[in-house]
Every structure is written in structure tokens, then in C-alpha cells.
Design a protein that fits this description.
The structure holds 2 protein chains of 2 kinds. By secondary structure, chain A is α/β, with parallel strands linked by helices. Helix content of chain A is 33%, strand content 15%. Chain A is built from 8 helices and 7 strands, in the order βααβαβαβαβββααα. Chain A has a 7-stranded mixed beta sheet with strand order 4-3-2-1-5-6-7. Chain A is globular. In chain B, the strands form 5 sheets. A 5-stranded parallel beta sheet of chain B has the order 5-4-3-6-7, with helices on both faces. In chain B, strands 17-16-15-18-19 form a 5-stranded parallel beta sheet. In chain B, strands 11-10-9-12 form a 4-stranded parallel beta sheet. In chain B, α7 runs parallel beside α9, α14 crosses α16 and α14 packs parallel to α17. Chain B is α/β, with parallel strands linked by helices. Chain B contains 17 helices and 19 strands. Chain B is 33% helix and 16% strand. In chain B, β3, α3 and β4 form a beta-alpha-beta unit. The chains are: A alpha/beta, B alpha/beta. Chains A and B meet through α4, α6, α7 and α8 of A and α3, α4, α6, α11 and α12 of B.
Chain lengths: 203, 472
């Protein structure tokens, strides 16, 4: 996983709430056995017309949002299916940061496994950010994970909370499995005890 | 109560959590032990690829049970899968399971079916376990008093390699359902009514424990339906404390303990229910008698109403986000505000899925379908959740009731719940569906889904529109 670095990038606006993972990556694209190449299908049913051409009405098709790394979106983002294809598609498309008031739990966890920083803000803060983008499409925000700070040219900057363990992993691009396996002896001990307590699970 | 005594009262969630903690050190996420790992073909291939690339092995192959369900055809099973990408996914699953020595119920296996239907049939999940699967409807197994939740593919790989998961402890929510359900109101209606009440984000960050007399009255199948949809209310897991029904259901099944081990297991299971006086972080109370058969009218499972009500108008929502959501949902669904729900016509009816694909679901639907005919212009399909459900239904003659009424009786699979296998709606078609999600395009691009119980689906098939089954 790539370490997450401080960056300045276009902030794209999607003023929609309860965006579910079926919309982020529709089911017809879940049959692949690889992890890569999902970005071209991100938001497929909203993004493309039936003939395959870009739907100009869809937010992310606006020229001002091309190349954006920061997605600013409404409440409860990523609800529904657990499919990790959703963050794979988001990352592959080019986003590494999401800003919303809330996320579904499974999606939120999945983001961190894929180098995506999901930032939580208050409703009031989100409204300000959305207004700033709407008034100046193509505006760039700066995200500084190290200092847990977002700055915007319109003065709507803020600091955000994040679990220190997850922050460290994102900053260093660390692999969760490697970290867990440092505790291999404890897992062995637990398992020995488990076998004694619940022998029927091991029969 | 004395403070210390108070602190010792634990909820069932806390008991399971505490007994599965492997590492709990400051500065890092607690590491939780995983007893059972369920798998299907869609969310596992990249996890196996990851294992291979890092030279790691599956730590406990016996903890895994795998099936093929999402992409499998529900008819002409004897023919090769037409979609080459789906075919490759199915073949990859078989290869991965063979290579790692995993127990797989493949498409041709008599135990095959939807993962969350198959697993309980074989008694693979017991009370007090921690159970994961790369599938949000893993919540189903909370019906047995197991902490069961959906995970992403990276986590699937993590569990295969380490038998553990770094986890953040959830808050606890008690949903109390008091009293008795009216005739024809079901576990599905309770689940939809709860989602309607607390919203799809209402349970985010929580594990829900369902309590109250209406929950005790539910069969194991009903409890599975209810816990299955905990995720629709945002909660990763739902729980029902085990009781005699749970033990009765498990006894004698393939992976259930037997002999002296049964007594030992049973003694342990009986320690699991939440202690009297244990404190939940939130409590929601619902009266069962108030729950009418539910019909979703929008594109989110929280957009539901009783069958005896009207399609809401956007202005009726004071919250701006909800008003906007209603507006766009009605546009997508092609519905006009204030239309009686019973005036909504359907083109398609689907009974099946991990929510409502069990024997009890087909029994109640057959009771309603018996002697009727599917309305003109309506396609109705019944898709058993597993081959065992299919066989049982056929032994009881239920298949005959459906086919006589003009329904298609299919092979098991996820089918139209998420329409990955070719069973899908076309643009604008409207479906009464016993599945769990009414998201835009879920059952096919432009398709319109109304979530209902099996009895309501069967009644809609015969009438061609929704009907209040209480009045039949």
C-alpha cells in the first residue's frame, strides 16, 4: 500500500446522501477475480448513458472535477453491500480522500485497507465545504493527515479526528496482516486455551 | 446497585467480545479471534491471490465453509455458465478451495445453496462464536447468538492468514419488540419496520440485540430473517439470545456437538444471554401489534410504509435530506405521492434470497398462492435458498402449488436479490421482492424493487398489485 502523503487536490462534490456500494460499483462488475481495473466502472449506472457515452448530468463528469483526489459527499456514504470492490474502484479512479458526515461501518474499514482516508465532519462543516465547491468548481483543498488538518482557499479549513493506529498505518502504508502476525505467539496461546475450553469446535 | 456489581453485568455482545480477545494493548486495535469463516465466490478470489503473493497459508482450513451462490444460474444447471467472466470466478473458487483444502459446496453439490441458508442447515454456527464472511448479510447468524458480521476482502485474507481481525468495539443497542404480531405480519415486517423507524444509518457503530416477547415467539428461520437485515439498519451485527428453540434447531446437525460434548456446549451456551440489568448504549421499543405488513416505496430500505398507507409526499418530511431523498426515490420508482400502496402494480415477483429463502418462507407463500393464478403480465419466480430447502419444499408438495399457480420453480442461488447471475429486471420493471435491498439498479438497471414478506409477495403475484393480506 502506498503511504498517504500531504497533498493539494481538486475537491469534487456529490451532494447525495445514502450512496450505497451498489451504486459505487454495480454488481455486473463484481465477477472479476483481480483487484485492479475497477475505476473505469466507478458509479457506472449514474456516470454513463445507455450507449456508453458520458452522462453530462453526473457530477463527476464535470470537467472541473477531472483529476480530483478528494470526494466530498453526503451522509451515510458506502452503505449496503460489504463489497471491497467499492473502495477498489474509488482508489483506482484516483480518489484517496473522502469527506462526509458519516460512513457505513464495513465501507469505512475497507477504506483504510486501500490507502483511502475517510474524513468525518459535522453537518455544518460539510455544508460549508459543499457551498465552497459549488461556488467555485475546481477549487483545490489541502489534506494533511500528519497534522489532521484540511485547508481550503475559502477559509473553511478544519481539523479532524482519526484513530491513531489507523493514521499510523495509512501514513506508512503498512500491511495489517504483517502487524497482526507480530502477535503470532499470542494467537497460538489463545488457540491452545480455546481448544481446551471448546473442544467440540476442534473435533 | 453497587457500582462494581453494576459494571459486572454484561450484554451478550460483551461476553462474546471478551471471550474472543487475543490482544488488547494500548495504541492498537484489539485483535479478535474468529471461530468460523464463511465464503462465496465474489468476495474471496482477491484474498486468495493476496495469500499466494505473500507466501502465506490458510491457518485453520476447518474453520471455513464455502459455497457458490451469487453467480450461479437458477435454471439449466446442466449447461456450462454462459457468462465467461462468471464462469472464471466459479472455477477460481473451486481451484482456491481445492488448493487450500477447504470444504466447498460447489454448484453440483447436494448441499449447495446461498451461504447464509446453507451454513445453519449444517449446524456450522453455534451460540457464542465469532463468525465472519465477505458478505454484509453475515449478520444472519446472529439468530443463533453468535457475533456474526460482514467484512471486506482484505479482511477475508487477514482472517485466512491469522484467524483474527483487528476490531473496534461496537456500542450496543437493544431493540425490544413487545407483544404479538398480527396474522401475516412476519419477521420481515419487523425488520423493515425497524429500518423505517431508525433509518439505514440508525444502527451504524452498534451491534443490535433483539429482545422482547415477539422475538421469543419467532422461529429460528424468522430470527435469521430479522438478524439478516440488521445491516440494512446500519448495524454490522444483530443478535438474538439462544434458547430452547436454538438448541432444538442445532441438535443432530452435522457440525453440532454430540454426546458429552453437547452437554458441555449447552452448559456454555446457557451462560451467554445478556445479564439481567446489563446496560445498552441505546434502546428502541416497538409494539409488534402496530406492525402492518410492510412495503418499501423508495430506493433505500428505510423508505417503507405499511401496506394500508399511501406513498408519502416529499413535503411530508421536515428533514431536508429526507425530503430530497424521497423526491429522487419517487422519480426513480415512477410513483406519485399519495398513491395508495395497494394501487401499485407489479410486473415481477421474486421469492428467495438469504433473507427469505428458507422452508418457512415457501410454506407461508404457498399457503397464500394455493389455488391462485399469477396475474396476467406478471412473471413470478420462486428460488429456494438451498437444495435442502428445495427438496423439503418438494417433499411437502409446495413446488406443485407454485407451478400450478403459474410460478417458475428454480434451482437455488442468490438470483434476483442482486441479479448477478442473469436473473434480472429490465428498465422500468417493477418487482415485489422478498430480498433485502431496494437500491437503484440492484435487480437490474432501471428496475424498481419493493421489499416485502413472502406472504405479501405471493399475494401481489396473484392480484398483480400489492394487497393487504390481512384482508384476504
Amino acid at each position: 500500500m502506498e503511504p498517504y502523503k500531504k497533498h493539494e487536490s481538486i475537491a469534487a462534490l456529490m451532494d447525495r446522501s445514502n450512496v450505497d456500494t451498489d451504486q459505487i460499483i454495480p454488481k455486473q462488475f463484481l465477477k472479476k477475480v483481480e483487484r485492479s481495473g475497477f475505476g473505469v466502472h466507478l458509479f457506472h449506472d449514474w456516470r454513463f448513458n445507455d450507449d456508453g457515452s458520458d452522462n453530462p448530468e453526473f457530477e463527476l463528469n464535470k470537467p472541473a472535477f477531472k483529476g480530483s483526489k478528494i470526494l466530498v459527499v453526503g451522509d451515510n456514504f458506502g452503505c449496503g453491500s460489504s463489497r471491497e470492490h467499492a473502495p477498489w474502484a474509488i482508489a483506482d479512479y484516483g480518489f484517496n480522500t473522502i469527506v462526509s458526515t458519516s460512513y457505513a461501518d464495513i465501507f469505512y474499514n475497507n477504506c483504510f485497507k486501500n490507502g483511502i482516508l475517510p474524513i468525518k465532519v459535522s453537518k455544518e462543516q460539510l455544508d460549508k465545504l459543499m457551498a465552497e465547491i459549488a461556488a467555485n468548481e475546481g477549487v483545490c483543498f489541502t489534506v494533511d493527515l500528519e497534522n489532521q488538518q484540511v485547508t481550503t482557499p475559502g477559509g473553511n479549513g478544519f481539523s479532524f479526528e482519526i484513530d491513531p493506529f489507523r493514521k499510523e498505518n495509512l501514513l506508512n502504508g503498512l500491511d495489517d496482516i504483517g502487524l497482526t502476525l507480530k502477535h503470532a505467539d499470542k494467537i497460538d496461546q489463545y488457540e491452545q486455551q480455546h481448544k481446551q475450553n471448546f473442544p467440540w469446535l476442534w473435533a | 446497585m453497587h457500582a462494581l456489581e453494576y459494571a459486572m453485568k454484561k450484554t451478550m455482545y460483551e461476553k462474546i467480545w471478551d471471550s474472543h480477545l487475543v490482544v488488547d494493548e494500548a495504541g492498537q486495535a484489539p485483535l479478535l479471534y474468529v471461530d468460523r469463516h464463511l465464503m462465496h465466490e465474489v468476495t474471496s478470489p482477491q484474498a486468495f491471490e493476496g495469500l499466494r503473493m505473500s507466501g502465506r497459508k490458510v491457518r485453520n482450513p476447518h474453520s471455513i465453509l464455502a459455497t457458490m451462490d451469487h453467480c450461479v444460474p437458477t435454471k439449466n444447471r446442466n449447461l456450462p455458465i454462459a457468462d465467461p467472466i462468471a464462469k472464471k470466478q466459479i472455477e477460481t473458487m473451486a481451484e482456491n478451495c481445492r488448493e487450500n483444502g477447504l470444504n466447498l459446496y460447489d454448484m453440483k453439490n447436494p448441499n449447495n445453496g446461498v451461504i447464509h441458508v446453507v451454513v445453519p442447515e449444517h449446524g456450522f454456527v453455534h451460540p457464542g462464536m465469532v463468525v465472519v464472511c465477505g458478505d454484509s448479510h453475515t449478520a444472519t447468524h446472529g439468530a443463533f447468538g453468535a457475533l456474526a458480521f460482514g467484512i471486506g476482502t482484505s479482511e477475508v485474507e487477514h482472517v485466512m492468514a491469522t484467524q483474527t481481525l483487528p476490531q473496534k468495539k461496537s456500542k450496543t443497542m437493544q431493540v425490544v419488540v413487545n407483544g404479538n404480531l398480527s396474522k401475516y405480519a412476519s419477521a420481515k415486517d419487523i425488520a423493515l419496520a425497524i429500518t423505517g423507524k431508525i433509518g439505514t444509518a440508525g444502527g451504524t457503530g452498534y451491534v443490535i440485540e433483539y429482545t422482547g416477547s415477539a422475538i421469543r415467539e419467532l422461529s429460528m428461520e424468522g430470527r435469521m430473517t430479522l438478524c439478516n437485515m440488521a445491516i440494512e439498519a446500519g448495524a454490522r451485527a444483530g443478535l438474538v439470545s439462544p434458547d430452547e428453540k436454538t438448541y432444538e434447531y442445532l441438535k443432530g446437525r452435522e457440525f453440532a456437538p454430540s454426546g458429552a460434548a453437547w452437554d458441555q456446549a449447552l452448559a456454555y451456551w446457557k451462560t451467554l444471554p445478556s445479564d439481567e440489568g446489563a446496560v445498552f448504549d441505546a434502546t428502541v421499543v416497538i409494539e409488534a401489534a402496530d406492525i402492518a405488513p410492510q412495503v418499501s416505496w423508495g430506493t433505500s430500505p428505510e423508505q417503507v410504509a405499511g401496506v394500508d398507507s399511501l406513498v408519502p409526499a416529499p413535503e411530508s418530511f421536515t428533514d431536508e435530506t429526507k425530503r430530497k431523498a424521497c423526491e429522487s426515490a419517487l422519480a426513480y420508482m415512477g410513483l406519485t405521492p399519495n398513491t395508495p400502496i395497494t394501487d401499485i402494480k407489479v410486473d415481477y415477483v421474486f421469492i428467495g434470497s438469504c433473507t427469505n429463502g428458507r422452508i418457512e418462507d415457501f410454506r407461508i407463500a404457498a399457503e397464500v398462492a394455493k389455488g391462485t393464478k399469477v396475474a396476467e403480465g406478471v412473471t413470478a419466480i420462486a428460488v429456494p435458498g438451498s437444495y435442502h430447502v428445495k427438496q423439503q419444499a418438494e417433499a411437502e408438495g409446495l413446488d406443485k402449488i407454485f407451478t400450478d399457480a403459474g410460478w417458475e420453480w428454480r434451482e437455488p442461488g442468490c438470483s434476483m436479490c442482486l441479479a448477478m447471475n442473469g436473473d434480472e429486471l429490465t428498465q422500468g420493471q417493477r418487482c415485489a421482492s422478498t430480498s433485502n435491498r431496494n437500491f437503484e439498479g440492484r435487480q437490474g438497471k432501471g428496475g424498481r424493487t419493493h421489499l416485502v414478506s413472502p406472504a405479501m409477495a405471493a399475494a401481489a403475484a396473484a392480484a398483480g398489485h400489492f394487497v393487504d393480506i390481512r384482508k384476504l
